[in-house]
Amino acid sequence: MNDERDPSLQILFASADEPLEGTAFSRTVMVRVEAMRRRRLYARFGFFLAVIGLGALVGPSLINLAGLATVGLSTTVIDLGSSVFAQALLPLNNVATLLILAVAILFGAYRKVFC
Fold first, then answer.
1. Cβ distance 94 to 73 under 8 Å?
2. Are 77 and 94 spatial neighbours (Cβ–Cβ below 8 Å)?
3. Distance between CA atoms of residues 53 and 11, nearest Å
4. Which of 17, 59, 91, 95 is deepest in the core (most CB within 10 A)?
């Protein structure tokens, strides 16, 4: 071991033993933390009000759009009449099934080409 000590390290360790101004520093930190907490709370409250307002404005239109989409997607592709055969094929004979098949084919083609 080396008996010589580095003077700059000695100064550093000596300054570590000095008491720090803890109460003023802690008070300043806590004031800043409290201000940040209040700002975050106000921002969340404002965001909540904006979402509620947007939902009140757009909600009825989205409900109408969902109703139209339900009617549109359940439209039969081929009119088979009202026989039992037509009722049996009804889950396969609609626009939604065609869209699902088209997306599945496109996804399969994408995977075949790019993966």
1. yes
2. yes
3. 62
4. 95
